[in-house]
Give the backbone structure.
Amino acid sequence: MNNTDASCSVLFEEFWVSSVAAVIKVTYKVKKLNNVMSVMTQAF
């Protein structure tokens, strides 16, 4: 395994981790928004 392969795999891993983190954040925000919406609709 040479240096270019190693650096590519590290870059890919960082990209994958950041992508997963972004998806989790978006999912959390959407769930939170849905909770707010359901509370709002129940209030009215």
Q: What stands out?
A: The CA atoms of residues 29 and 35 lie 10 Å apart. The chain has one domain: 1-44. Helices lie at 3-43. The mean pLDDT is 90.
